[in-house]
Write a structure and sequence with these properties.
heterodimer, A: mainly beta, Immunoglobulin-like, Ferric Hydroxamate Uptake Protein, Chain A, domain 1, five-stranded mixed sheet, B: FAS1 domain, FAS1 domain, 4 domains, 29% helix, elongated
C-alpha cells in the first residue's frame, strides 16, 4: 500500500518535470582505458537544480552518446556524470548545447570496496557525541556477531556494556533478563526500552494476557531481529539521556541501529555458521540403586520417628510398595529395577545453523540494502528448537540535498518449539531412576520401544497432576509451539527547511502475530481418557498492532565557533492495540487432529482486547560555549491512557552540563592527554502502570443478591489519585582519552531515587465495601527506593601497525539498591514455617532481592547437641531439671536433624529466628577481553563476570531435601546416618520434620567469571580471493561459554532473575547455557 | 617495540592458558563422595574378608544389588567358618552346589528388611517413635521379636476339596525371630534355659550383646554400614518354616494333620493374583476359626499389622501318630468308636484345640498371642482356649520335635495331652459314641462348658444317651453336610442345649447334702440341686433310684404317676484312666427320662395354672386350697389376681384334710354353716364369705415370694437354711399407733424349720402353733415355673 503511495509520489514528480519548458543538450562520454579514450556506455547523466535535486536525467547509449532535455526556468543547473568505479563529475550548465566528457577512474573506490566514511554521529536530538552531557556507551555489533554463535542480541551484549546486567537462558528463544543500573521499580516492568532506528520497539503485553498454557516469556522475547542486521548498539543509562524517549525509557534505553545501504556498486555478503552445543554437566543424581536405598532410609527413619506401626501409609511404603522394594515375583519387577538416567534421555547435543545473505549498494540518489537470514537452533532439551527467517529491505532516496526519504521494511518469522511443559528437565531429574522408561521384555530383559507410562494413584510417584509425567514422551511427543510473525514498516522524512533547521518525521507500523499450539499426549501422562489432561490441545492467537509517529524540528546554529545552539522540539504518539483468543480442549483423537474445531471436550477458553495510547511532547536545548562548556536540557510532557485524568500528564525535566577540559589552556601542553570531558546531569523520569485503564472503578451486577433485589456492587476502586512513579537521577562522570586516544576511559557515578513507587494489589479493609472479589486496590503510589553506583570502562589499543593489532577492553560497574521507605500498610512478609520456604520480604534499608531465612549450623550429631542453650551457652532445663531439647517448629530435634541458629534462645526454631542472609544483587558486574590480530589471523576473547551476588540454589535444595518421592542428588549420599558422620546434610526423612527450612544452607555465592567467547579467525589472502572472484573471505572458529570460574555448586551460576522483581531469585535448574563451538565462513563479493 | 609487544601477547596467551588449566569444578567437588562415608553392607563384609562364602551366596541368589547399596538392610552374616560347617553338614563341597531355590531361601533369611541396630533388636518399639521415655520403653520390652526377611517360599500347590482341583498357594516372606534378654525378662522366665530348649547347641548371648537369633549366637553385632547394620552370627540360619509344613514334612504327624485339615479352606486373593500371580490365580491356605493359621507364614495376612506380625505366634502341641493311636485305643475305642475318623467332630475339635495355644492377653500387656516357652508351660501359664492349662511332660518332647517355626513353636508330643473335658466328668460324652446327642448339647454351652471340666469344682454328671434323647423326642438331623439335634423338626435352641446340659450336672459344692457320691445312697433320700445358674432344678434320690424335680411333679398331676414310674435306676461310668477316676467327680448313666424340657412339654409348667384348671377335681391334694382361694375372690376365671406374674413363690399348700378341718373350725372372713352341714357333704356348699378382704389377707400368708424370702433353695430335708428371722408372706396386718392413731402395715412372716426328720412351719408371732409339712412326698419340693409347692398338714 505504502509502496504504491511512493510510486505515485515519484510519478507525480516525473510529471511535474515534463511539463516545464526545455532545450536539448547532446554529447559524448568517454573513459580512459589503458591510456586511451574509449566510449563509456551506461554513464548516468542528470540535471540537478540548486538543491541538488535531479530534475532530468539519461544514460549514454552504446556509442557513448547522450541527449538530454534541459528544462528552463529552474535557476542554476548542474550536469552530473556518474558511473560506478568512476569519479563523479559535476559540470555547471551554462547554456551548452553539446558536451564531451571524459570519466576518470575512482582509485579509492576500486582499491577498497568497503568504504567506512567517517560521518559524525548525531543523536535523536540532533546533537553530536561531543555535545552530549549524558552517559552513553556505544558498541559496534559487527565484530561480535560475525564470529560468535549468538542468535540473540542479549547474548551478544552480555558483559560488554558497563552497567548493563544481562542474564541469558539456555533454551532457544528463552527470555533473558536485562537490568540497566539496577532495579528501580517493584511492580512495573524493569526491562529497558529498545529503540530500533529511532523508533521505540513496543513490547507491550497487556497484563490481562494470562493464558494458562501460553508462556508469557515467549511473548516478551526481545527482538525478532537478526543480530547480523545490526550495525551498532548504544546504551543510554541516565535519566538525562533517556529523557527524549519519555517515560518508556525509565529503565534505560538500548538504541539499535541497523545496517543500511551505502553508495557503490552492488555488494554481496554471504555468511554461514555452524554451531555445536554441548550442555555442561548437570547436578549428578542418584542412580536406581542409590535412590531406592535413600527412599527406604527416609521412610524407615520417619517410621521410627513416628512409630512404625502407627501410620498405615508408612507401613504401606515399607512393606507393600514393590516399586521401592525387591520382590522378583511382582509383575513390574523388571520395570522398576533398572537404573535410568532420565535427564540424559531428554537432553541432546544440539546444532545451530545460521545463514545470512545481504546485498547493498546505491548511487547518488538512492541506496538500498536487502538482507535475508535463516537461523535454525536446536535446544539441548529434546523437543526444543527455534528457527527464524528474517528479511529486511531498506531504501533511502535523496530527492535533493534538502529532502531525503527512508523506508524500511522487515519481516521476521520465528518458530519456537518446546515441549508442552517447560518442566521436562526438572521432571526428568526428579523421576525415580529405578523405573524404566520403556517396557522390559520379560524374555530378553531388554527394553522394548513401548513407553512404560504407569503413572497412576497407586504408583509410587503418584498420578499426573502437572508433575509426574513421562519425561521422554513429554519431550518427544508433546509440544507447545509458537510462531511469531512480525512485519514492520517505517517511513522517515528528512527535510532541511533552512540551513541548520531541519524537520524530521516518521511513521512506524508494526504488526505482530503470535500463534501458539500446544498438545499434551495421553502417552506422556498415563491419565485415563476422560481426564482433562488426556490428549489436551490448546490453540491461542495474539496480535498486536503498534502505530507510532513522531514529528521533530531541530535547529542548529553556530556563531563563529563561539556559540553553538541546538534546539529541538518533538511530538510523539503511540498507539498499541492487541487482541487475543485461546481455547483448550481435551480428548482429541491425535495431535494431528487437535484443532479446536474437532470433537474434543472444552477445558477453557477466553479472549480479550486491549489498547494503550500515549502522547508526549519533548523540548530540548543544547548550548555550547567556546566549544568547551555545554549546557543542555529537555522537558518531557507526557500523557498515558493508563492513568486517570487528574494525573495523566507528567512533566519530566532534565538538565546536563559538560566541560571539555582538554580544551582549556592549562591542559593544552599535556600531550599524553588527548581528551578530557567532565559531565554532570540531572533528570526525571516516570513509570505508569500497565494495562488499558487500571485506574477505572468497575461495577458488577449482583443478580438478586441484595436483600433479594437486583443490585450493582462496586468491584474495584476508582483510582483518581493514581500517579506516575517518578525517578530522579543524578549522574556525574568523565570521558578521557590518552596517547592519541589509544587509551580511552569513561567513568560515571550516579544516584537514582524513585518515589511514589507503584504498589500492586494492596489490601484494603473490607469495611470499604470492596470485598466483592478480593479486597484489594489495583495500584497505589507509595514507597521510595534508590540505586547508587558507578561504572568504569577502559579501552586500550596496545599496538597497532601493519601486521599487528593488540587491543584490550574492560568494564566494571557497581550498583547498590536500597528500599528507602515503605508504606506501613504493605505487609512485611508473607511466610509460613514450612520446608523450602523463604520469607518474601521487602523491607526498608535492604535491597530488593534480599533473602531472609535461618542460619544453618549443620546437623545435630549427638543427643547432647540437641539440648537447647541459653545466651550464655548453658543447657536449659525444665522444672524437673531435665534438659530441654531443641525443636524445629513442632518437631523435636534428634541426632541427624538440621541445626539452625536459635537467635532468640527460646529452644524453638520459628519465625523469630529469621535473619537477613544475603541478596541477589551482584556487587560488581562487567566484562573485558582482548583482540589480537596478526596479519590475517585474529584472536578475540571476551570474558564476562558478575561478582558478589547470592542465589537460592533451589535446584540443590530440591535435590537434597529428602522429603518426598523425588530423586535426589549425589549429595544425599553424605546424609547423616549415625553419630560421628562428618556432614552438613541431615538424615533422610519421609514427608516429616523441618530439615530444609529456608536457610543460608541453600544461599550460595554465584559469582562467576566466564570465558564468554574465544574466537580465532582468518582472513583469506587477497590474491586467493581474487582468483575466486571474491573481494574478501573469512573463516573462523569460536568457542562460546567454554569455561566458567565459579565456586557455585549449581549447574550454572548464570541464573535468570524472575520477571517479577519482588519474587525471590532462585536457581530452578533451568536449561543452563551450553558450551558452544562454532565454525563459519563469511564471503564478500 | 614490536618485540616487546609480541612478548606481551605471548604473556597474555600464557595467562589465558594458565587460567583455563586452573579451572576448578566446584560442582563436581560438592557432589564428590567423602571419605568418611561407611561402606555398604556388601563392602563392609567384603573388606572384612571373612564372609566370602556368604557373599558368594548373596551373589548367586541375586541379592547382590540389594546388599550392595540398593536396600536398607540388616544382615545376619555367618562367617566362612560357619558356612563351612553348614555345607559340610549338608554334604556339599561348595555353596555353588546348593539348589538355587534353597539358596534363595537361605540367603534371603539372613537379610532383614530395614536397619535394626542392636538397640532395636534388643527392644523393637513398633508403636512408639523417637520421642519416648525410657519408662515407656520398658513396657513389653523385647516382645516384638520377629522381623521380616527377604526369604520367601515359591508358590506351592494344595488340593482344594471344594472345587476338586489343585490351587496355587502364595507364600509370604519369612520373619526372623530374634530373642533378646528383654524378651525373657518380660516373660519372667530364664533366657538361657528356654532358648536352649529349642537350640541346645547354641550358646546364649556369648558376647553380651543381649540377643540371639533363632539358632545362632551373635559374635560381632551392630556394625554400622551406609545401608544398615551387619550382625555377625556363629551359624548359618536354617530358614524357618510354617508349622504346617513342619508337620507335613514329618510322617509322624499325618494323623494329627489330617484331623487339623478338617478345618482347612482356601481363599482366592485377587490383589495378590494381579500383582504377583503372573497370570496364575493365587490362594491363601487358611483354617476356619478358631484354628490357628498354621499354614500361613504370617499370623495376619495384612502387612500393616506390624505389632501382630512381630509378636504373635502359635504354640502347637502336636501328637505323633503313635500318641494319637495310643489314645484312641485307650479312649475312643472303649467308647465305641471304630476308628479315629469316626470320632465325633466335637471331640476331635476339642482334641485339636487342646493341642493349640494361641497366646493370651494379659492386663496391662498389649501384646497378645505370644509363643509359649517351656517355663511358661510348666508354670501353668499356658491356658488353652477352654481355660485349662496345657500340661505336658516337656522333657519327653524329643529334641527333634522342639521346632521353632515361622509362625510359632511346635512341640511334637509322643504323649497326647488329654483335653481337660476328656478327663473330667464331661469325659463320657466325649468318649462314648452313644452320648453324641448330649455332647452336642454340651458343646452348645460354649465357654460355659469350661466350668464343667475345671478342677476347681467337683461334679456329679448324669449322662443321657442318644436313645434317651430320642425317646424324649429329639432327633439327629443332617443338612448340607452338617448334623444337628432337632426337636419337632426344628434345630434345638441354645437355651434348650444349656438347659439339658445343666440339668445333668450337680455342683457338689453347691449342695447341702453330705454325700458326694450316689453309690452310697442305696437307701434313703437325698436332694441335689443341679448346676443351673438361672433356674432351680433338683435331682432327687430315693432308695438308690433317681428322679428330678420336673418328673417328680407328675405325682400331683391330675393324671398322676406313681413313684415307681418316676424313679429310675442308674450306674456309674468309670474313667478310661487306670484308676478309673474322672478329674472332677463322678459320672453316671441312668435310665428313664430326666430331660428338663421333656417336663416342659407337659401341660403343667405352672402350679397355679394347674390348680386353676383342676378346681373341681376333689382327688387332687390341693383341691381344698384352691377352692378357698376361689371363694375369697382371689381367682377370677383367668388367673390368680394376688400374685405378681413371673414371681417365684414358695407355696405352702394345706392338704385337703387340713382345709376341711380348718373350715370347720374357723377361717377368718369365711362363714361355715355348721348347722346345715352333714358329714359327707361338700364342705364348700355350706360356706359363705362374710368378709372377703379379711379372708384374702388370711389366704395370702400361704404364699412366700422367693425374692424376699432370704433363701436360695426350696425347702427339703437337709435344706439347712436359717429362717428364724422370718420369711415375708404376702399377708400383712394393720397396726394402729395408740398415741397418734396413725395406721401402718406389718408383713406377716413365717419360719420354716428343718428338724432332720421333718420340716415344720409357724407364723413368726408369739404363741404361734408349729405345723408339720406333709411327709407323703419325702419332703421333696414340687418345683414349677412359678415356684415350689410343699404340702402342710394344718392351716394357720
Amino acid at each position: 500500500m505504502l509502496m504504491k503511495k511512493i510510486m505515485l509520489l515519484l510519478a507525480v514528480l516525473g510529471i511535474s518535470m515534463s511539463i516545464s519548458a526545455q532545450t536539448i543538450l547532446t554529447g559524448h562520454v568517454y573513459e580512459m582505458f589503458e591510456g586511451k579514450k574509449s566510449i563509456a556506455i551506461g554513464v548516468n547523466i542528470s540535471v540537478n537544480n540548486s538543491q541538488n535535486r535531479m530534475i532530468e536525467g539519461t544514460v549514454t547509449n552504446y556509442n557513448g552518446e547522450f541527449s538530454l532535455r534541459i528544462p528552463e526556468g529552474k535557476g542554476q543547473l548542474t550536469l552530473v556524470f556518474s558511473y560506478i568505479g568512476m569519479k563523479t563529475q559535476s559540470i555547471p550548465y551554462t547554456g551548452q548545447t553539446s558536451l564531451e566528457v571524459v570519466m576518470s577512474e575512482d582509485a579509492q573506490a576500486l582499491s577498497d570496496v568497503v568504504v567506512s566514511a567517517r560521518r559524525e554521529y548525531k543523536s535523536e536530538m540532533g546533537i553530536t557525541m561531543r555535545e552530549q552531557t549524558a552517559a552513553t556507551e556505544r558498541i559496534q555489533m559487527n565484530d561480535i556477531v560475525a564470529f560468535t554463535p549468538v542468535t540473540s542480541v542479549e547474548e551478544a551484549l552480555q558483559g560488554r556494556l558497563a552497567g548493563v546486567d544481562i542474564l541469558t537462558g539456555g533454551d532457544p528463544g528463552a527470555r533473558s533478563s536485562i537490568r540497566i543500573r539496577g532495579t528501580a521499580t517493584l511492580n512495573t516492568s524493569a526491562d529497558p526500552l529498545i529503540v530500533i532506528n529511532g523508533v521505540p520497539y513496543s513490547t507491550d503485553i497487556d497484563d490481562s494476557f494470562d493464558f494458562s498454557t501460553a508462556n508469557n516469556d515467549d511473548y516478551a522475547a526481545m527482538l525478532n531481529l537478526s543480530p547480523y542486521d545490526i550495525e551498532s548498539i548504544e546504551v543510554l543509562k541516565d535519566a538525562a539521556s533517556t529523557a527524549i524517549y519519555g517515560t518508556a525509557g525509565a529503565n534505560g534505553v538500548l538504541l539499535i541501529t541497523t545496517k543500511t545501504g551505502s553508495k557503490g556498486k552492488p555488494r554481496f555478503t554471504v555468511s554461514s555458521k555452524f554451531t555445536a552445543k554441548h550442555e555442561p554437566e548437570s547436578i549428578p543424581m542418584l542412580n536406581g540403586k542409590e535412590y531406592v536405598a535413600f527412599i527406604q532410609d527416609a521412610i524407615w527413619n520417619t517410621a521410627n520417628a513416628k512409630g512404625v506401626a502407627n501410620s498405615s501409609d508408612l507401613l504401606d511404603l515399607l512393606y507393600d510398595t514393590p516399586e521401592i522394594n525387591f520382590n522378583k515375583d511382582w509383575r513390574y519387577f523388571n520395570e522398576y529395577n533398572t537404573s535410568t538416567d532420565w535427564l540424559s534421555q531428554v537432553i541432546q547435543s544440539a546444532y545451530t545453523f545460521d545463514n545470512n545473505f545481504s546485498m547493498s549498494g546505491g548511487g547518488e540518489k538512492a541506496t538500498y540494502r536487502f538482507s535475508l537470514s535463516l537461523a535454525d537452533e536446536d535446544g539441548t532439551t529434546i523437543g526444543t528448537n527455534m528457527n527464524r527467517l528474517s528479511t529486511s529491505f531498506n531504501i533511502a532516496y535523496r530527492f535533493s540535498d534538502k529532502l531525503r526519504v527512508d523506508a524500511d521494511f522487515s519481516f521476521a518469522e520465528t518458530n519456537k518449539k518446546a515441549p508442552w511443559t517447560e518442566n521436562v528437565r526438572s521432571e526428568a531429574m526428579l523421576k525415580m531412576p529405578n523405573k524404566s522408561p520403556y517396557w522390559i521384555d520379560d524374555a530378553t530383559l531388554e527394553p522394548t520401544d513401548r513407553y512404560f507410562n504407569r503413572q497412576n494413584a497407586e504408583e509410587f510417584q503418584g498420578a499426573f497432576n502437572g508433575k509426574n509425567f513421562h519425561p521422554i514422551a513429554m519431550a518427544k511427543d508433546s509440544y507447545n509451539n509458537s510462531k511469531q510473525q512480525e512485519e514492520k514498516m517505517n517511513f522517515r522524512l528528512n527535510y532541511d527547511i533552512l540551513p541548520g533547521f531541519t524537520y524530521t518525521a516518521y511513521i512506524s507500523m508494526k504488526f505482530k502475530t503470535i500463534k501458539n499450539r500446544a498438545f499434551l499426549p495421553q502417552s506422556a501422562t498415563g491419565v485415563s481418557m476422560d481426564n482433562i489432561y488426556a490428549n489436551q490441545s490448546t490453540d491461542s492467537y495474539n496480535d498486536n498492532l503498534a502505530l507510532q509517529t513522531e514529528n521533530k524540528l531541530i535547529y542548529r546554529k553556530n556563531w563563529e565557533n563561539k556559540h553553538n545552539l541546538v534546539v529541538t522540539g518533538l511530538w510523539r504518539t503511540s498507539d498499541s492495540q492487541s487482541s487475543n483468543y485461546m481455547s483448550t480442549i481435551y480428548g482429541v483423537s491425535s495431535q494431528h487432529a487437535s484443532d479446536p474445531s474437532t470433537n474434543g471436550a472444552l477445558v477453557n477458553r477466553g479472549s480479550g482486547d486491549s489498547q494503550v495510547r500515549s502522547v508526549s511532547g519533548i523540548g530540548g536545548l543544547n548550548y555550547t560555549l567556546l566549544n568547551k562548556y555545554i549546557i543542555s536540557g529537555t522537558v518531557n510532557f507526557e500523557g498515558k491512557s493508563s492513568l486517570g485524568r487528574r494525573n495523566r500528564w507528567g512533566i519530566f525535566p532534565s538538565v546536563g552540563l559538560a566541560w571539555h577540559m582538554k580544551e582549556e589552556w592549562f591542559l593544552q601542553n599535556w600531550d599524553w592527554l588527548s581528551n578530557l570531558k567532565l559531565r554532570a546531569s540531572y533528570g526525571e523520569s516516570g513509570s505508569a502502570p500497565s494495562g488499558t485503564a487500571p485506574y477505572m472503578g468497575t461495577y458488577s451486577a449482583l443478580g438478586d443478591g441484595y436483600m433479594d433485589n437486583a443490585a450493582i456492587v462496586p468491584v474495584s476502586v476508582q483510582l483518581n489519585n493514581l500517579k506516575w512513579q517518578t525517578a530522579r537521577e543524578y549522574d556525574a562522570g568523565f570521558d578521557a582519552g590518552f596517547f592519541e586516544d589509544r587509551l580511552t576511559t569513561t567513568f560515571d557515578i550516579y544516584y537514582k531515587y524513585v518515589s511514589d513507587l507503584l504498589q500492586k494489589s494492596i489490601a484494603v479493609p473490607t469495611t470499604t465495601g470492596y470485598d466483592y472479589k478480593g479486597n484489594t486496590i489495583k495500584y497505589y503510589n507509595s514507597g521510595e527506593m534508590s540505586n547508587t553506583g558507578w561504572e568504569f570502562r577502559v579501552d586500550y589499543t596496545l599496538l597497532q601497525d601493519k601486521d599487528w593489532k593488540v587491543a584490550l577492553n574492560y568494564n566494571i560497574a557497581r550498583n547498590i539498591n536500597r528500599i528507602e521507605k515503605l508504606p506501613s500498610n504493605l505487609p512485611e512478609s508473607t511466610y509460613s514455617l514450612r520446608n523450602g520456604e523463604y520469607a518474601k520480604r521487602i523491607i526498608e534499608g535492604a535491597p530488593v532481592g534480599s533473602f531472609f531465612g535461618y542460619r544453618y549450623l549443620g546437623v545435630y550429631d549427638t543427643t547432647e547437641e540437641t539440648y537447647a542453650r541459653d545466651a550464655k551457652g548453658n543447657v536449659m532445663t525444665n522444672l524437673k531439671g531435665e534438659a530441654i531439647v531443641m525443636k524445629n517448629g513442632s518437631y523435636t530435634c534428634f541426632p541427624g536433624d538440621a541445626k539452625y541458629q536459635d537467635v532468640n534462645h527460646d529452644g524453638v526454631i520459628n519465625e523469630s529466628d529469621m535473619v537477613y542472609i544475603g541478596n541477589s544483587n551482584p556487587i560488581v558486574t562487567g566484562g573485558g577481553g582482548f583482540n589480537i590480530r596478526y596479519k590475517q589471523l585474529s584472536l578475540n576473547t571476551f570474558l564476562h563476570y558478575r561478582l558478589g551476588q547470592k542465589i537460592i540454589n533451589q535446584a540443590r535444595m530440591n535435590s537434597e531435601a529428602m522429603y518426598g518421592t523425588d530423586n535426589q542428588s549425589l549429595a544425599v549420599l553424605k546424609r547423616w546416618r549415625s553419630p560421628g558422620d562428618d556432614t552438613t546434610i541431615p538424615r533422610a526423612l519421609w514427608k516429616y520434620g523441618l530439615n530444609y527450612l529456608g536457610s543460608d544452607r541453600f544461599v550460595e555465592d554465584c559469582s562467576y567469571l566466564r570465558l564468554k567467547s574465544i574466537s580465532l579467525s582468518y582472513q583469506l589472502p587477497k590474491n586467493f580471493c581474487q582468483k575466486l572472484s571474491l573481494s574478501s573471505a573469512n573463516v573462523f572458529v569460536t568457542g562460546y561459554d567454554l569455561f566458567t570460574w565459579t565456586n557455585y555448586a549449581g549447574q550454572d551460576p548464570e541464573v535468570t532473575l524472575p520477571s517479577n522483581v519482588t519474587d525471590i531469585a532462585m536457581d530452578k535448574a533451568q536449561t543452563p547455557p551450553s558450551k558452544r563451538i562454532a565454525a563459519g565462513i563469511t564471503i564478500n563479493f | 617495540m614490536k618485540q616487546l609487544c609480541s612478548k606481551n601477547v605471548l604473556w597474555l596467551i600464557c595467562l589465558t592458558l594458565l587460567g583455563l588449566s586452573s579451572c576448578r569444578d566446584y560442582m563436581a567437588e560438592y557432589y564428590e563422595r567423602p571419605d568418611w562415608i561407611k561402606g555398604n553392607c556388601y563392602e563392609v563384609l567384603e573388606k572384612d574378608g571373612h564372609y566370602s562364602t556368604f557373599l558368594k551366596g548373596i551373589e548367586l541368589a541375586g541379592f547382590r544389588d540389594m546388599v550392595d547399596g540398593k536396600s536398607i538392610l540388616t544382615v545376619m552374616a555367618p562367617n566362612d567358618e560357619a558356612f563351612a560347617q553348614y555345607l559340610q553338614a549338608k554334604g556339599l563341597n561348595s555353596i555353588e552346589e546348593m539348589d538355587s531355590v534353597e539358596l534363595d531361601k537361605l540367603i534371603g533369611f539372613h537379610l532383614m528388611y530395614y536397619a535394626y541396630s542392636a538397640d532395636k533388636l534388643n527392644n523393637f518399639r513398633p508403636q512408639e517413635g523417637d520421642d519416648v521415655s525410657d519408662e515407656e520403653k520398658r513396657v513389653n520390652a523385647g516382645m516384638y521379636y520377629k522381623h521380616r526377611t527377604k526369604s520367601k517360599d515359591a508358590n506351592t500347590k494344595e488340593y482344594y476339596q471344594t472345587i476338586q482341583q489343585d490351587v496355587t498357594i502364595y507364600h509370604h516372606e519369612r520373619f526372623l525371630p530374634v530373642f533378646s534378654q528383654n524378651y525373657f525378662n518380660t516373660k519372667q522366665i530364664d533366657a538361657e534355659e528356654n532358648y536352649r530348649y529349642f537350640f541346645p547347641n547354641t550358646e546364649w548371648n556369648p558376647t553380651g550383646i543381649g540377643y540371639n537369633v533363632a539358632g545362632a549366637a551373635v559374635t560381632k553385632g551392630n556394625q554400622i554400614t551406609s545401608n544398615g547394620y551387619v550382625h555377625e552370627i556363629d551359624r548359618v540360619l536354617e530358614p524357618v518354616n510354617t508349622i504346617y509344613s513342619e508337620l507335613k514334612r514329618d510322617s509322624n504327624f499325618t494323623m494329627f494333620l489330617d484331623l487339623y485339615k478338617k478345618y482347612e479352606y482356601f481363599a482366592y486373593n485377587p490383589t495378590l493374583s494381579l500383582e504377583y500371580g503372573n497370570g496364575e490365580r493365587l490362594y491363601e491356605h487358611l483354617f476356619l476359626d478358631p484354628m490357628p493359621q498354621i499354614a500361613c507364614e504370617w499370623p495376619s495376612t495384612d502387612y500393616s499389622q506390624l505389632t501382630t506380625l512381630s509378636s504373635v505366634g502359635y504354640t502347637i502341641f502336636a501328637p505323633t501318630n503313635d500318641a494319637l493311636n495310643k489314645f484312641f485305643n485307650n479312649y475312643w475305642a472303649k467308647g465305641g468308636y471304630a476308628s479315629l475318623s469316626n470320632v465325633s467332630g466335637e471331640s476331635i475339635k476339642k482334641l485339636l484345640f487342646n493341642c493349640v495355644y494361641k497366646g493370651k492377653s494379659e492386663d496391662g500387656k498389649n501384646y497378645d498371642g505370644n509363643i509359649a516357652f517351656p517355663e511358661e508351660i510348666r508354670r501353668g501359664d499356658v491356658i488353652n482356649s477352654y481355660g485349662s492349662p496345657i500340661s505336658l511332660d516337656l522333657d519327653r518332647v524329643p529334641e527333634k520335635y522342639r521346632i521353632l517355626c515361622q509362625n510359632g513353636l511346635l512341640y511334637g508330643c509322643e504323649d497326647l495331652a488329654v483335653p481337660a473335658m476328656f478327663a473330667a466328668v464331661t469325659g463320657p460324652a466325649y468318649q462314648y459314641k452313644h452320648y453324641g446327642f448330649f455332647l452336642e448339647m454340651l458343646a452348645g454351652l460354649g465357654d460355659m462348658e469350661s466350668m464343667l471340666y475345671g478342677t476347681d469344682m467337683n461334679f456329679i454328671a448324669l449322662m443321657p444317651n442318644d436313645d434317651q434323647f430320642k425317646a424324649a423326642g429329639y432327633q439327629q438331623k443332617s443338612q448340607s453336610g452338617r448334623t444337628y439335634i432337632a426337636i419337632d423338626g426344628k434345630e434345638v435352641s441354645a437355651g434348650v442345649k444349656s438347659e439339658n446340659s445343666y440339668a445333668h450336672f450337680i455342683d457338689l459344692a453347691n449342695c447341702t447334702g453330705s454325700a458326694n457320691e450316689l453309690d452310697s445312697l442305696a437307701s434313703g433320700t437325698q436332694v441335689f440341686r443341679t448346676f443351673s445358674p438361672d433356674y432351680t432344678f433338683y435331682i432327687y434320690f430315693k432308695d438308690g433310684k433317681i428322679c428330678n424335680s420336673y418328673s417328680f411333679n407328675q405325682l400331683i398331676y391330675p393324671t398322676a404317676k406313681t413313684e415307681e414310674e418316676i424313679f429310675a435306676p442308674f450306674h456309674e461310668l468309670k474313667s478310661y484312666t487306670e484308676d478309673g477316676n474322672w478329674s472332677n467327680g463322678k459320672a453316671y448313666a441312668y435310665e428313664g427320662d430326666l430331660m428338663p424340657s421333656t417336663a416342659g412339654k407337659t401341660t403343667y409348667k405352672s402350679f397355679q395354672g394347674m390348680m386353676k384348671n383342676n378346681i373341681v377335681n376333689a382327688e387332687l391334694p390341693y383341691y381344698g386350697f384352691v377352692n378357698l382361694l376361689e371363694m375369697a375372690g382371689m381367682y377370677n376365671e383367668a388367673s390368680f389376681n394376688f400374685v405378681q406374674e413371673g414371681e417365684l413363690q414358695m407355696m405352702l399348700v394345706p392338704t385337703n384334710e387340713a382345709v376341711f378341718a380348718a373350715i370347720k373350725d374357723s377361717i377368718p372372713g369365711l362363714y361355715f354353716d355348721k348347722a346345715s352341714y352333714v358329714e359327707g357333704d361338700d364342705v364348700f356348699a355350706h360356706c359363705s364369705v362374710n368378709n372377703d378382704s379379711i379372708m384374702q389377707m388370711y389366704m395370702k400368708q400361704y404364699f412366700v415370694p422367693m425374692s424376699s424370702a432370704g433363701v436360695s433353695n426350696y425347702p427339703y430335708l437337709g435344706w439347712k437354711e436359717d429362717t428364724s428371722k422370718g420369711m415375708t408372706t404376702l399377708n400383712s396386718v394393720e397396726i394402729v399407733d395408740p398415741v397418734t392413731s396413725k395406721v401402718s402395715y406389718d408383713a406377716v412372716k413365717l419360719v420354716i424349720t428343718d428338724k432332720g426328720d421333718k420340716l415344720c412351719v409357724k407364723l413368726l408371732e408369739d404363741n404361734a402353733k408349729e405345723i408339720d409339712f406333709c411327709g407323703d412326698y419325702h419332703y421333696f419340693p414340687f418345683v414349677f415355673e412359678d415356684g415350689c409347692v410343699q404340702f402342710i398338714n394344718e392351716m394357720f
